[in-house]
Fold:
Amino acid sequence: MDDRSDMAMLRKSVARIEQRYRGSFEALYLQTGLSLVDNALKGGLRRGVLHEFLGNGHDRVLCARPTQFIAHVLSQAAGPVIWVTPPGEAPILNGLRQAGLSAERLLCIEVDPARMAATVEDVLRSQGVLAVIADMSLPLSLTASRRLALAGEAFGVTGFLLHRHEQIVPPSACWTRWRIAAAPSAPVRLGCRALLPFPEGLSLALLRHRGGDTLHWRVRTDHVTPSSFPLAAVLAHNALAQGASASRPNPASGVVWA
Structure:
């Protein structure tokens, strides 16, 4: 490929980026459905970038709660979703339907873990795709994550990396990094009696946010099923979460209850 072809491809990529930034507000963000979370993120999860998700405890490998959260976010936007997974690890469609993501919009691709990064990059370079979800059985190198980030930025496809392993996740080029876990509520007490607790909620920990603070929310769901969506409206907010000062070493201590 000669220099003129390279320059033409570069101009097309720049034109796509400029067009995306001239688009509507909805074209820039994927909303989570939680107003305080979306406001803290200046509109929601940024489109055309990479977002990393980790589970916690017994859910570290299964990543059921992060999966439900991602499915809920994508259910609110239009367009096909490509799920790239190792052989035999296809997502449970029933759980995705409960989160609102229709199976008709979902295409599952099984690939060898060694080909995961290359396959995800190919999908990120595809037109007409809303998002790609990758079941990562191994962490990505910083170089590989940079390639994926550039591909997503050039073609406007959002990447969700689900880390289904117990290894330490190294630094990456992802826009955000999340840890989503269960947040059981304390039993309700009436005098000396301890009644049943409210339905299990979620702990949303924003571990990394490019250009923003690390934050933490605790959210209670509307329904009895532990990881059901939609989420309840936020009732209270600890202002320390968003008003973190430079002198405070841990800006993630702010908590939101819903």
User: Anything to note?
Assistant: Residues 223-258 have pLDDT under 50 and may be disordered. The two ends are 55 Å apart (CA to CA). The first helix runs from residue 3 to 22. DSSP finds six helices and 14 strands in the chain.
